[in-house]
Amino acid sequence: MVEIQLGETDRLDWALKQFRRRMIRSGMFKDMRRKRFYEKPSEAKKAKMKAAERRRHKDRKRAARMRDM
Predict the structure, then answer these.
(1) Alpha helices, DSSP H, located in 1-69
(2) Which of 6, 23, 33, 50 has the CB geometry, 3.0–4.6 Å to 10, for a possible disulfide?
(3) Do 33 and 56 share a domain, yes or no?
(4) How much is the pTM?
(5) What are the pLDDT digits (tens) for 27-54?
(6) How many structural domains are present in the chain?
(7) Residue 2 CB partners (closer than 8 Å, separation 6+)
(8) Range with the lowest mean pLDDT among 6-15, 16-25, 41-50, 56-65?
(9) Which domain does 60 fall in, by range?
(10) Do 21 and 44 lie in a common domain?
């Protein structure tokens, strides 16, 4: 749970900015976006496999670039 402690003289815009930063750092925004709509288990599995393939492709490109140097 993300909390922001406010003092008597703290501004609301400052508090909202701090709250947003802490939400982003904790990963809750990504999680909320991901859970906004129901995703069938088969679709979740496909998305996970696609993300893994993107990571492997990125790693292969990085390794090839390092070899060429």
Answers:
(1) 12-26, 28-34, 41-68
(2) 6
(3) no
(4) 0.55
(5) 998 889 989 999 999 999 999 999 999 9
(6) 2
(7) 19, 22, 23, 26, 28
(8) 6-15
(9) 38-69
(10) no
Distance of CA 54 to CAs 39, 40, 61, Å?
Answer: 20, 21, 11
Whose tokens are 């979740």? That residue is 44
**Do 2 and 29 share a domain, yes or no?**
yes
Tokens 């982003």, residue located? 24
CA 36 to chain CA centroid, Å, is: 14
If you average pLDDT over every residue of the chain, what do you get?
Answer: 91
At 26, phi and psi to the nearest 5?
-80, -15
**Same structural domain, 1 and 32:** yes
Amino acid letter, residue 24:
I
